[in-house]
Amino acid sequence: MAAPTPKIKLYTNHGCPWAHRAHITLAELQLPYEEEIIDLTTPRTAEYLKVNPRGLVPSIDIDGEIITESAVVAGYLADAFPSHLLPVSNAPGGALTRARIAFFVDTFFTKVNGTFFKIVFAKTDDEAAALVKEYVDAIVKEVEPLLGNAAPFFNGSDKLTLAEALTGPFVLRLLTLPKHGLLPESIISDLAARAPNFSRWGEVVAKHPSVTGIYDEEKIAAGTKARIEKLRASS
Ligand SMILES: N[C@@H](CCC(=O)N[C@@H](CS)C(=O)NCC(=O)O)C(=O)O
Does the beta carbon of 57 sit less than 6 angstroms from any atom of ligand 1? Predict the structure, then answer.
C-alpha cells in the first residue's frame, strides 16, 4: 500500500534563495504542498513567529511537525522520501554518496558563495572586478575538481541531487543576473574559460524546471536593483 501523502505547508518568499531550496526539493519529490507567502518587508506576525521564532523563511509544517532552516528542511524531505536526490545511508555506496554531497555543499557555501552577494553589492567597478576574481579563483580551486564526474548532475547522476537542490538557487542567480547588469558579464566568460566542469554543470542546473520553477528573473533583478539603490542612498 502506498504511503499516505503528507500534508505540507511551506512558508516561503519567492525572492529568497534559501526558501528556493525547499521549492526545488519539493518539486523533485513531486510532493503536493500549500504555500504561505511571508512578507519580508514588514515585521513578522506573532502567528509566524510561533512557526519560526527566528522569523526567517523557509519553514515547513509537515503533518503538524514544524521544520525550519533551509538545509534542514531540504535534508529532512530528502531523507523522509528517499529518491534520486539522496540515497539512504545503508544502501550500497549510500553513505559515501551522502558524504560527497555534504562535502560539495559545504565547500560551495564556505569557500565560494560568501563572495557572491559582495559582488552584487560592490560599490565600484574595481571592487566588483577584484571580487569576481576572488569568486572565480575559489570555484577553480575548490569546486571545479568536485565536478569532474558530473553527468550532467553531481557525482555522475542523471537527475538532480540534493547537491543541486541546495546550491541551485545561487547557481541560477549567478548565471542569470549578469544580463541585468547586476554582476559583471566577465564572470560567465571567466568561469567558462577556467572552470569548464562548473560551467557545464551550472548551465544544466540553471535550466532545470525544478530549479527555474518559482524563479521570476525580472522580479528578482528589479528587487535586487531596488535594494542596491536603497543601500547607496543610505551610505
Ligand atoms: N539560514 C537560513 C537563512 C534564511 C534567510 O536568511 N531567509 C531570509 C530571506 S532570504 C529571511 O527570512 N529574512 C527575514 C529577515 O531577516 O527578517 C536558512 O537557510 O533557512
Answer: yes
Across the strands, what pairs with 34? 9
> Which tens digits make up the pLDDT trace of 14-43?
999 999 999 999 999 999 999 999 999 999
- Counting DSSP H helices and E strands in the chain, the numbers are 11, 4
pLDDT band at 218 (very low <50, low <70, confident <90, very high): very high
For ligand 1, atom 2, the nearest C-alpha belongs to 69
Find the 57 Cα to ligand 1 centroid distance in Å. Answer: 5
| Range 8-80 has CATH code 2.40.50.90 | no
57 Cα nearest atom in ligand 1? 12
The whole-angstrom separation of Cα 184 and Cα 137 is 15
Q: Which fold has domain 94-234?
A: Glutathione S-transferase Yfyf (Class Pi); Chain A, domain 2 (1.20.1050)
The residue contributing the CA closest to ligand 1 atom 10 is 16
Contact 112, 142 (CB under 8 A): yes
